[in-house]
């Protein structure tokens, strides 16, 4: 063999074997806003993973490593895992990269080593450890290749690569993942929530008509009111161990393992009137119920959704009944929260879902009025509008007892109405004859007439038919 031919062979060998040290695992930084994982990482549901036991067997992902150098006969590539693989793992005896035939020559619970026995592989080619197992049955199938780990070991599992040449004599291809692709590009599994965010996209905003002596039994516009909560899935949806789903290895479709969304609507709407409303959810199969709230007089409305994998979007419609079943409506507020089984929050930002306001009513508060022997009350309403106005009253005594006196009279248009006698009679009917009360008087009439300035109340009292006391109220100066 002449010298020129020998030199050509050496040059060719150098060109193939090279000295590059830039092997990497590819990362994917969209998995989480602040986390990079391997491009093939298995993404578990945080909530579903909590249902698993540490010994449950799981499937690792495909492992792809970009060679940082060319490989020829005698070069070896080793993968090292941060935790032990299970004995049911099956590794292919031969993996082809370009024309290089890599043979499995050794393995431990945490390492796998391949050696090139023929051909060559170019730098930047991909060495792929396949995953042919996809189901629970496949885990026990020795004919299908794939890495198997317990759930405890797969949780946060990482992989590193190292290489030698000359049958292990010298360092060859160095894994530079930590500097080139981000430290977590070697992360083979991670957990992220399967729940996104619910937002209120439309709110309750009905205006209750208080202009007629029906005490607010209708809306000014329309016959119902509704709010909508829209659910948006997380940016990255996990694919393994989803609550309510079967991924082939983890069956979490049982009711106890499924998502059971519940919407709780806390309303100031009186629980005594709840049967006078029809409340509907747009979600098929949802069940609507109600009960007394934290404040016993108020209503808590519960919507229980069908069990499944996620949180639904929903439009909830509230329709007051009519006729003899019509409720007495007022200015009510509504707040909603979505949880799983009433405890674990599944979605945020679903709090204030709107309120009802009233039109055509004007409230005047008399903060103090004495009753008893030798006392007489002076309460007059001056209605300066052009409409008759219905008058109702609620009194609260010194003990905090509330006396709903109902309708106590009518203030005729452009006239003065005496209210002290009907209020006193209504209190006596409630069993109250002596003491001090605060009185809230509500005037209901045409919404353009029942306004501050058009209705004024004069309030005071006489003691022993000789002394007179003036009591300021919110229509003439009291705050």
Structural summary, described in words:
Strand 23 (333-340) and strand 24 form a beta hairpin. The protein starts with a helix and ends in a 9-residue tail after the last strand. The protein has helices spanning 3-17, 46-49, 136-139, 151-154, 177-180, 420-429; strands at residues 27-32, 35-38, 42-45, 57-59, 63-66, 76-81, 94-97, 100-107, 111-118, 126-129, 148-150, 159-165, 170-174, 189-192, 197-202, 207-209, 225-232, 261-270, 277-281, 287-292, 298-304, 314-320, 333-340, 344-347, 352-355, 357-359, 361-371, 375-383, 389-397, 402-411, 415-418, 435-444, 455-463, 467-470. It has 3 domains: 15-192, no CATH class; 197-358, Immunoglobulin-like (Sandwich), CATH 2.60.40; 361-470, TM1070-like (Hypothetical Protein Tm1070, Chain: A, Sandwich). It is rod-shaped, with a radius of gyration of 39 Å. The model is unreliable at 1-20 (pLDDT under 50). It has a 6-stranded antiparallel β-sheet with strand order 7-8-9-6-12-13, with no helix packed on it. Strands 18, 20, 21, 23, 24 and 25 form a 6-stranded antiparallel β-sheet that branches. A 4-stranded antiparallel β-sheet has the order 15-17-22-19, with no helix packed on it. It is 9% helix and 43% strand. The chain contains 6 helices and 34 strands. The longest helix has 15 residues, at 3-17. It is mainly beta.
